[in-house]
Write a structure and sequence with these properties.
Layout: H1 2-18, H2 26-42, H3 45-49, E1 59-67, E2 72-78, H4 83-99, H5 108-127, H6 131-140, H7 142-152, H8 157-185, H9 192-195, H10 202-219, H11 228-235, H12 238-263, H13 265-291, H14 296-315, H15 326-357, H16 373-386, H17 393-407, H18 411-419, H19 421-436, H20 443-446, H21 453-471, H22 474-491
Antiparallel strand pairs: 1-2
Helix pairs in contact: 1-2, 1-5, 2-4, 2-5, 4-5, 4-12, 4-15, 5-6, 5-7, 5-12, 6-8, 7-8, 8-10, 8-11, 10-12, 10-13, 11-14, 12-14, 12-15, 13-14, 13-19, 14-15, 14-17, 14-19, 15-16, 15-17, 15-21, 15-22, 16-19, 16-21, 17-18, 17-21
Length: 496
């Protein structure tokens, strides 16, 4: 029942928010949206407190017949690979509502409703144990994000929204073909766990790998199918950028663990060097691209692509004998959660500045520390975490993945990934230096006021998450162990 509540409370609450009506009722709209977001988050907390860390089986399972003729079920459950992302998504939704509290004056009811409905759909994708149910949630979440970018975005919002929609939709169509094929060869079942047991020839596995890979690589996004993300981030409102970076990218990476690795393990091992190569390209090349950006949002967007390259790198670290790395997968999962906190916080920081100056250009700032000292201190923490500073959450995942590469006998891969952390420090700190430090650059900066109590506590909570996870990651890792161990055993065993 908990998973259904996590899905349907935000969706039904979002529909209720839409009934609050016109802009004159904006205050009512905000409070209904906030109460819904808080309720949606609170019902996910028992997923952690009641989680059994000694088993890899799905927990909090719910199952009911949906389309009986084709054996499609409303089948929900979470394990160590998915549980934290349901909680993270519901948690981030609260910040999206708070961030748009006084900023959104155009159709606020529809704005908050779109985010709440999308939150429920994303939870559904992470919790789905039936392939059709996953596909429905996975595709349906495109609609509210398309509307968020297209209605409340910047000057080129329509172009960015259409590009985002087409990229992700076209990739997903290949996944649908793959799911239909697996349904046919599995004896008429759409249960994802049944797909894991189907023996498949190598040529079939490679074709299925390509179909799934294109769907999830676009969503991550991996180089070279990443070009939709910077455009979407630049044009999206602050809340849209936060959800894009903190949550929706994680769905793509999650797809690798739920579909590709367990369904086509032989193809995964065979094509692992290819995935490792393009992951390293993303980390290095996109890091250099981030260095030359003049727009803060675009810089952070490219930073996200580079950081997500570490995730896919960790997932595909196979030793020469074909044994996967549990440490690499756990590091990737930790990186996903950490990136949710850090990227969300970074985009919220840009939003705080944009709300005051209506500019994201780095050149328009300088000396912000003189007028916004509290903000400067908080942004410093998030910038350092983005650069992978030890004792912050940004260090945990990247260090673990680098260590996993070395332990798998891939020293130069680990060295290349580790050395490119310098790039992360370079573009993060250089942006911070130009925006925050120095003398007051102009009259607009001189007129800035420091963070409001609403903004301060919003960023403080995220700061606590970044430091808490960096100093004590055990609550996150202990949940993953059993599921990762089972996945590694499965992936390291041939289906041929």
């Amino acid at each position: 029942m908990l998973l259904s509540l996590a899905i349907w409370i935000p969706i039904i609450g979002g529909l209720a928010v839409m009934t609050t009506g016109r802009d004159s009722n904006a205050n009512t709209t905000r409070w209904v949206a906030l109460v819904t977001a808080l309720a949606g988050f609170l019902v996910t907390l028992p997923l952690y407190t009641g989680f059994d860390t000694t088993t890899a089986a799905l927990q909090f399972v719910e199952k009911a017949s949906w389309i009986e003729r084709y054996n499609v079920n409303y089948y929900l459950g979470v394990d160590g690979l998915s549980m934290w992302f349901v909680i993270l998504n519901s948690f981030i939704t609260i910040f999206v509502v708070v961030a748009g509290w006084v900023v959104i004056d155009k159709k606020p009811a529809q704005y908050f409703a779109a985010f709440l409905i999308m939150s429920g759909l994303i939870n559904g994708a992470f919790a789905a144990a039936d392939a059709v149910l996953f596909y429905v949630f996975f595709e349906a979440m495109l609609i509210p994000m398309y509307l968020i970018i297209g209605i409340w975005g910047g000057p080129n919002r329509v172009y960015a929204a259409i590009k985002f929609f087409l990229y992700t939709l076209l990739g997903s169509l290949l996944m649908l073909v793959a799911l239909l094929y697996l349904y046919n060869v599995s004896g008429g079942s759409f249960e994802i766990a049944q797909f894991h047991k189907v023996p498949l020839a190598m040529n079939v596995q490679i074709l299925l790998f390509v179909a799934f890979f294109l769907a999830f690589a676009v969503k991550v996004p991996m180089w070279p199918v990443h070009t939709w993300l910077p455009d979407a981030h630049v044009e999206a409102p602050t809340g849209g950028s936060v959800v894009l970076a903190a949550i929706t990218l994680k769905l793509g990476a999650y797809g690798f663990l739920r579909f590709i690795l367990p369904i086509v393990p032989d193809a995964s091992r065979y094509l692992a060097p290819f995935v490792v190569a393009i992951s390293l390209i993303a980390i290095v090349y996109i890091g250099f691209v981030a260095l030359i950006q003049t727009d803060m949002k675009k810089l952070i967007a490219y930073s996200s692509i580079s950081h997500m390259g570490f995730v896919t790198l960790g997932f595909f670290l196979f030793a020469p004998g074909g044994v996967g790395s549990g440490l690499g997968i756990e590091g990737g999962l930790m990186q996903m959660i950490s990136h949710g906190f850090i990227s969300g916080a970074m985009f919220l920081c840009v939003g705080v500045l944009y709300d005051r100056m209506h500019s994201r250009n780095i050149a328009d700032y300088g000396g912000v520390v003189n007028t916004m000292p509290k903000f400067a201190a908080l942004m410093m923490l998030f910038t350092m975490a983005n650069a992978g500073l030890p004792a912050t959450s940004g260090f945990i995942g990247e260090f673990t993945i680098t260590l996993a590469a070395v332990k798998q006998g891939m020293f130069w891969t680990g060295a290349a990934a580790g050395l490119t952390l310098i790039l992360g420090a370079a573009y993060s700190l250089w942006m911070y230096k130009r925006v925050i430090f120095g003398d007051i650059a102009n009259e607009n900066v001189k007129a800035l006021t420091d963070v409001t109590p609403r903004e301060f506590w919003m960023l403080m909570v995220l700061a606590a998450c970044v430091l808490g996870m960096g100093l004590y990651p055990a609550p996150f890792t202990e949940v993953m162990h059993k599921s990762v161990e089972e996945l590694i055993v499965h992936v390291s065993r041939s289906k041929l």
